[in-house]
């Protein structure tokens, strides 16, 4: 069910609350760590702990630089927007409140509270998405205005959702059912539903878009099959089999920057890397070999077998694998180009970051290149001085002092109070400088600590 923004929205800041990979349920999450997440282009790692959160640069395999360390109690969600200074934090002490900070200036941009626990937050250059168990809120990241509220979404206790990092293709994916693996594709730019993809027979466990927002990978709670679909059409493009012996819990999926590879981590000791390549006519057809002949025989035989069996025969296996030292540990993985080489990064629940080299031609077992402690003890903190250019070209903001804005207030249950206005919402005299490559997004500081009465 969809409603326009304002029909039911976030409760104003200051109201105490009770508390696309699925976000941790408040109070659970990564053992030892409250959370761990890579930013949208896998250049930064954010970790939340009982005492605060830290941001690390992962652009080099030589050392792990801690670029920010902040104190806050029981952080279980921390998300950084690309390489900017904007970071979103949610704490167990106020699990219904989202705080948005400019971490380099040490200032709070704004905060929003919601009618239920926040389970996950997703960001791109245009949108900020907040996922609750039965609703989704879509904000304009430039001014944090609430654009859309998706109410009565299927029960989603893990907060599973995925947002394309391509702001031009700003698609949002979330479960369309609590009992089977349906995926709703929603256009977060135009605020409209695009399609529904019947992806799996069992409920969804993991979702992720590729960098361009043209492909979506999914896995179900069984964890045996991973499928890739075209976006927005919803056509199945690839099907990969992680294994057949046992059901597993897929904890994360991630495409490589060029969409050539897809990695999947789970609660087992093995991480699988699949290669996305279409199998067309090859040289083998011109020069038949015994292997190609057997392959054709299997392909022909599969047409006479039950659908489930023939499906297994047509599914691709892992191109490369990683064997972790310990199983049954929750982890988050990503594929990135670091120092011009393809790498697999794995952040584990015991606070370790593992970096593996990938052979893009041969695949096989990946080689451990580097292991770092995410606590970064003894590592030099890197906080380079950065220029702070103006946003004047993109955002016109009066400089004569704070300008009060009139916003509709929200009642405790999330419904708008008719006729009530909140004059206390104020903006800073100047824009926030986020110190990234193109100074995005032009977010304005909100000095108000209350949106409703």
Overall form? globular
What is the rounded Rg?
Answer: 23 Å
Mean pLDDT: 76
Per DSSP E runs of 2 or more residues, the count of β-strands stands at 35
In which order are the strands of the major sheet placed? Answer: 1-13-12-11-10
Q: Give the strand content.
A: 35-45%
Number of DSSP helices? 3
- Report the uncertain regions: 1-9, 12-19, 27-31, 282-286, 307-314, 374-433, 435-442, 447-453
What can you tell me about this protein's structure?
The protein contains 3 helices and 35 strands. The protein is mainly beta. The strands form 9 sheets. The protein has a 5-stranded antiparallel β-sheet, with no helix packed on it. Strands 22-23-24-25-29 form a 5-stranded mixed β-sheet, with no helix packed on it. Helix 2 runs antiparallel to helix 3 (307-314).
List keywords for this structure.
mainly beta, five-stranded mixed β-sheet, disordered C terminus, five-stranded antiparallel β-sheet, WD40_rpt, 6% helix, 453 residues, WD40/YVTN_repeat-like_dom_sf
């Amino acid at each position: 069910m969809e409603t326009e923004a304002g029909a039911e929205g976030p409760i104003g800041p200051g109201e105490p609350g009770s508390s696309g990979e699925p976000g941790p349920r408040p109070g659970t999450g990564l053992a030892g760590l409250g959370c761990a997440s890579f930013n949208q282009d896998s250049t930064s790692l954010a970790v939340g702990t009982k005492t605060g959160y830290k941001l690390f640069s992962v652009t080099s395999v030589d050392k792990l630089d801690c670029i920010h360390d902040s104190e806050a109690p029981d952080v279980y969600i921390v998300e950084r927007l690309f390489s900017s200074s904007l970071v979103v934090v949610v704490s167990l002490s106020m699990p219904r409140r989202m705080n948005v900070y400019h971490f380099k200036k040490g200032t709070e941009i704004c905060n929003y509270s919601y009618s239920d626990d926040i389970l996950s937050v997703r960001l791109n250059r245009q949108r900020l998405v907040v996922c609750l168990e039965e609703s989704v809120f879509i904000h304009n990241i430039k001014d944090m205005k609430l654009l859309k509220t998706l109410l009565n979404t299927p029960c989603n206790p893990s907060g599973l959702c995925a947002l394309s990092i391509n702001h031009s293709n700003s698609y949002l994916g979330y479960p369309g059912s609590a009992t089977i693996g349906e995926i709703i594709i929603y256009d977060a730019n135009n605020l409209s539903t695009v399609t529904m993809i019947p992806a799996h027979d069992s409920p969804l466990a993991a979702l992720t878009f590729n960098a361009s927002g043209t492909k979506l990978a999914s896995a179900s709670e069984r964890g045996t099959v991973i499928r890739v679909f075209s976006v927005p059409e919803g056509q199945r493009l690839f099907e990969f089999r992680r294994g057949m012996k046992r059901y597993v819990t897929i904890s994360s999926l991630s495409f490589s920057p060029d969409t050539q590879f897809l990695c999947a981590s789970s609660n087992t000791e093995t991480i699988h890397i699949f290669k996305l390549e279409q199998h067309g006519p090859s040289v083998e057809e011109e020069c038949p070999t015994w292997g190609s002949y057997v392959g054709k025989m299997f392909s022909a035989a599969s047409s006479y077998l039950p659908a489930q069996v023939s499906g297994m025969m047509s599914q691709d296996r892992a191109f490369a694998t990683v064997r972790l030292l310990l199983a049954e540990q929750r982890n988050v993985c990503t594929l990135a180009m670091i120092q011009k080489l393809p790498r697999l990064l794995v952040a584990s629940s015991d606070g370790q970051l593992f970096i593996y080299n990938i052979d893009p031609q041969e695949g096989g077992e990946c080689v451990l290149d580097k292991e770092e402690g995410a606590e970064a003890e003894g590592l030099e903190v890197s906080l380079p001085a950065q220029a702070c250019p103006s946003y004047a070209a993109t955002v016109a903001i009066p400089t004569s002092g704070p300008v009060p804005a009139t916003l509709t207030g929200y009642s405790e249950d999330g419904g708008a109070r008719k006729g009530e206005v909140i004059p206390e919402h104020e903006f800073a005299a100047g824009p926030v400088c986020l110190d990234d490559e193109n100074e995005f997004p032009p977010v304005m500081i909100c000095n108000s600590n209350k949106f409703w009465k």
